[in-house]
From TrEMBL:
SUPFAM superfamilies in alphabetical order: ClpP/crotonase
The protein's name in its UniProt record: Uncharacterized protein
Matches recorded under InterPro entries: ClpP/crotonase-like_dom_sf (IPR029045)
Domain of life: Bacteria
Length: 380
């Protein structure tokens, strides 16, 4: 499979990949290398055009798309068939490209599924380390295994019914479902419903998970803190040059290396005495004076756990027009982020939301894979 990157302009430049050709065992490795190399042009979408190939590799391509929060599509004049159709399911949102203002055709031949047997795999597919993956991820005759393929489809938020419906279709006999059916099965999705909040941001040899909303960004990843690699949460906010002045939206996502390379602002003796970090001592001319005192973690509607910020677990940086709060995530809070379907993170001035100001981030189940990948080097 070949990859071509094109730049698209929204509020800031983003990258789109056009992927064409057979999916081979080398395809996932090449795709991941490409994604990691795009540090200046974030990749947000991919269009797939392929008649299939190695099924195990296709599933790994799909997992990469999900891990990097990439939207998958099929162009108007292209087709994604066989193993490619399963790679397509990895998109965090999935759609058919159309003309401006148009709806995709109900009867379609862009996305085609069929069953898989061991004999249908390309030569060498069952050799070496790929054998176990294929045995657990094929349909044999009309019998669907309970292993890899069904688990993959379910993990991608699609209905596993597609496997059974495709099973009777052999080589070059594709199941082309109408668009309405594809939507019912969760194969074509609503963009906003499935996109989630976090995206992976390559940063040299590291990767962080970042979420931007207008003038602020939350970043979660691994960083050296206190002489060792630890999980950290970074809150970034922009501010106007004077009261009432327009704020500066953040785009594209800030990398942790840039944040940590900005001006470090140490805790003062006054901050330590009052157990609060007073950012207003160096943010001048703003309409509000941020004070950081506490980190909160809430699961659903449960009572929040509260962690007091100190010079031992937090650091602050200044990069006009932005400031950054870097906070070490306690192990219990990391476990919540990676385990629970929904959690809330709050940074505030006081231990209770009704006292002073706070800023809240909500994470959902669809964010967990991105967060786990971003924390993989410092959380076992």
């Amino acid at each position: 499979m070949t990859f071509e990157i094109e730049e698209r302009i929204t509020s800031y430049p983003i990258g789109h990949i056009r992927a064409e050709g057979m999916i081979t065992p080398e395809t996932p490795r090449r795709l991941e290398a490409l994604l990691k190399a795009q540090t200046d042009l974030p990749i947000t979408s991919i269009s797939l055009s392929s008649r299939g190939g190695n099924l195990a590799a296709a599933l790994e391509v799909g997992r990469l798309l999900r891990r990097y929060r990439i939207v998958s599509s099929v162009s108007i004049d292209k087709a994604c068939l066989s193993a490619c159709a399963y790679a397509f399911l990895g998109g965090v949102a999935r759609a058919f490209e159309t003309g401006y203002g148009d709806e995709p055709e109900e009867a379609q031949k862009r996305l085609g599924f069929h069953g898989f047997t061991l004999e249908m795999q390309i030569p060498g597919a069952l050799e070496g380390r790929n054998a176990a993956a294929f045995v657990g991820a094929v349909t044999q005759g009309s019998q669907v295994t309970a292993g890899g393929l069904a688990d993959y489809v379910a993990a991608m938020d699609a209905n596993v019914e597609i496997i059974g419906r495709a099973a009777p279709h052999g080589r070059n006999q594709y199941l082309y479902l109408p668009v309405s059916e594809l939507k019912k099965l969760g194969i074509l999705t609503d963009y906003e419903k499935n996109l989630g909040e976090f995206k992976l941001v390559p940063d040299g040899g590291n990767v962080q998970a970042a979420f931007i909303h207008d003038d602020h960004q939350f970043t979660i990843g691994c960083s050296q803190f206190g002489g060792r690699l630890q999980p950290v949460l970074v809150f970034t906010n922009t501010f106007g040059k004077s009261p009432g002045a327009p704020i500066t939206p953040i785009s594209p996502p800030l990398k942790l290396s840039r944040i940590l390379g900005s001006t470090y602002r140490p805790w003062t003796s006054n901050d330590i005495a009052y157990k609060r970090f007073h950012a207003h001592s160096w943010i001048t001319g703003t309409a509000w004076n941020p004070v950081f005192g506490y980190f909160h973690m809430t699961v659903g509607d449960s009572d929040p756990t509260t962690v007091a910020l100190t010079s031992q677990n937090s650091a602050f940086f200044h990069d006009p027009p932005m400031f950054h709060a870097v906070i070490v995530l306690p192990p219990a809070e990391v476990a919540v982020l990676l385990r629970e379907k929904e959690s809330y993170v709050s940074l505030g001035e006081q231990p209770y939301p009704e006292s002073g100001w706070s800023h809240v981030l909500r994470t959902e189940a669809r964010d967990r894979e991105a967060l786990a990948y971003a924390l993989r080097s410092c959380v076992k």
